[in-house]
Write a structure and sequence with these properties.
One of its GO terms (molecular function) is hydrolase activity. The protein is built from nine helices and six strands. It has 237 residues and is of the alpha/beta class. It has two domains: 143 residues, HAD superfamily/HAD-like (Rossmann fold), CATH 3.40.50.1000; 78 residues. Strands 3-2-1-4-5-6 form a six-stranded parallel beta sheet. Strand 2, helix 6 and strand 3 form a beta-alpha-beta unit. The two termini are 15 Å apart. The mean pLDDT is 97.
């Protein structure tokens, strides 16, 4: 193993995903209040996002989202896209207040970098890259520590589709047997096992929608730090 893939929300960045989603929707509604009713906007955004999650064509998630949103909102889609771009550099930042980092994460990432592991942010690519970069920073991390960060501009598929994990591995030129997927979502992150990627389930902010599951490893943030400490260094030769 020499490459470790990390989920972002609830993994690198501790959070209650339901609370985060609620707070996100409130901020988004207020930011667009002068051009569209908040409830209508959220319904349209969720519908367009659902289309992205279900897409199995080789099309960028951003293009799928825009295509569906344009069919739903009144007026020129360009106005909405400009407003979204401004949102992620302003009101979106208000969400950080309720998302304190976990010190074990920064320590673990530092340790893995010292051991020469290649690190990847394998977040579900339904947010633009700038939103992902903000959340990485909120976690107390440096985006430059990661060889690749998935985003809706750069990816065509979403978890739990095997196509998503295959796309990431192809992009970073890596094989499943050399990877570990670390995440807190049973259905989305453990789906990496279908490609032969080993998994570590972080349980501090566990998301499990029911049913039996299998993972190679599991534990808390503290447990994962100890797991990383026990890993051998990666030879660069």
């Amino acid at each position: 193993m020499k490459t470790i893939l990390f989920d972002l929300d609830g993994t690198l960045l501790p959070m209650d995903i339901e609370q985060f989603t609620s707070d996100y929707c409130k901020q988004l509604s207020m930011f667009f209040a002068d051009i569209i009713d908040g409830k209508s906007l959220i319904n349209h955004v969720l519908t367009a996002t659902a289309a992205v999650l279900q897409n199995q064509e080789e099309r960028k998630n951003e293009a799928v989202f825009i295509e569906h949103l344009a069919q739903l909102v009144p007026g020129d889609i360009t106005l909405y896209l400009e407003r979204f771009a401004a949102f992620y550099d302003s009101a979106f930042l208000n969400l950080q207040e309720k998302l304190p980092p976990n010190p074990f994460i920064a320590d673990t990432i530092r340790l893995l970098k010292e051991k020469n592991y290649r690190l990847v942010v394998a977040t579900n690519p339904i947010f633009p890259l700038k939103a992902n970069l903000h959340r990485i920073r909120w976690a107390g991390l440096d985006a430059q520590d990661f060889a690749y960060i998935s985003s809706f501009e750069n990816n065509c598929y979403c978890k739990p589709s095997s196509a998503y994990f295959r796309e990431v591995l192809t992009t970073i030129n890596e094989t499943p047997e050399n990877c570990l997927m670390v995440g807190n979502d049973v259905q989305e992150d453990l789906a990496a096992r279908k490609l032969g990627i080993k998994t570590y389930l972080l349980e501090d902010h566990l998301i499990h929608r029911g049913g039996e599951f299998t993972t190679d490893y599991r534990g808390s943030y503290a447990d994962f730090y100890q797991f990383a400490a026990a890993l051998p260094p990666v030879s660069l030769g």
